[in-house]
Structure formats: structure tokens, C-alpha cells
Amino acid sequence: MQALTTLLLLATATASALPSPNLNSRSTISATIYPEPNFQGEPTYLSDLPNNQCTAVPEGTAVGSFKVDSGALCRLTYNADTCSLHGDLFVFPDTPAEDVGDGVEKRGVIVW
Description:
This protein has one helix and seven strands; from the N terminus they run αβββββββ. By secondary structure, the chain is α+β, with helices and mostly antiparallel strands.
């Protein structure tokens, strides 16, 4: 009887630990921009950014460091006149860019 109980508990634990086959992509993400390196200064929060579309950094925003939601991938461009799918910096999941430059105004954020 103990062996049956143990097997049943093991099967239940294994079944509940399996990943869900239904994964949903995000439609929006959020980003935080700090005016100074190492996440210092008063942050600017950008929420509900559309996925796979270009979003301009708010005018007058200085970018010293940049953070996105966990699991998101963003591209920051600061040398193009328009927002396009090129970029100068990739920010990968869980690896925030602590120092992206001199804290000067940047031109765009591209969110994938």
C-alpha cells in the first residue's frame, strides 16, 4: 500500500511540474530608462509598449541605463534619424544595460 501511495504522489508531482503546452506571446512590455549609468537618477517608465513595433523615447529623455521586463528583448538606437529595425544595443532577458552612454537624449526604442 505504501508503494502505491508513493507512486501516485510521484506521478502527481511529475504531472504538475511539466510545462504548459499553451504559451502566449506578450502583446506589450514595459521599459525603464534612467538618466545616469548604474540605474541612478529619476527613472522614466514606459509601459504597455507594443511588441515588435518602434516606440520613440520621450523627447528630452536622457538615457544612461535601460531596463526591460524579464524575458523581453529590446533594441535601442541612438544614431538614426528615424526609428527602424536597426539598432546599436541589444538588451537581452534579465541582462539590463547598466551603462549605455553619456546620458544624452536618445532617439528611439525598438521593442520586439
